[in-house]
Amino acid sequence: MTNPRRAECTVPLVEVAITEFELACLPETGAVFDRLLALHPARVVIDLSGCRHIDAAAIGLLLDVHRQMVRTGGVLALRDPNPRIARILQAARLDQILPVHTDNAAPPTPGTGALAPAAGDPELPGTAPRRSAYGHAAVTVRT
């Protein structure tokens, strides 16, 4: 007797706003990612607009989430990093792997790794200053 394959519930988009992204908060943030990956999202967008720091451990977690998303046919994207974080992402070549979007530019074509200028960059006229906040990962599910 063959068991019919059970249909899995999928969520088209999960947005995560991260305000702290370093080693000290990775267990909590990793648990949030585990829970959201269980939803089998087609797309996960991590909003970094309120994040002031990212370290190597956080970059490792992003790569791990990216690999899990690729295995299930999903896409992980980053949104609105401040200029400092954008430079860190470029130095780590993460912008070559993940799409990085900003509020003041059209999203790059997936797979190009193009990093658009970050909003609030003092070298770019007409960009809004960044707000800063500390807190914990917040998850918003939009269907």
UniProtKB/TrEMBL annotation:
Domain (STAS) ranges: 44-98
Membrane-crossing residue ranges in chain numbering: none
Compositionally biased intervals (Low complexity): 111-120
InterPro entries associated with the record: MlaB-like_STAS (IPR058548), STAS_dom (IPR002645), STAS_dom_sf (IPR036513)
Pfam families, sorted: STAS_2
Entry-linked SUPFAM superfamilies: SpoIIaa-like
Annotated region (Disordered), positions in chain: 101-143
Gene3D superfamilies recorded: STAS domain
Protein name: STAS domain-containing protein
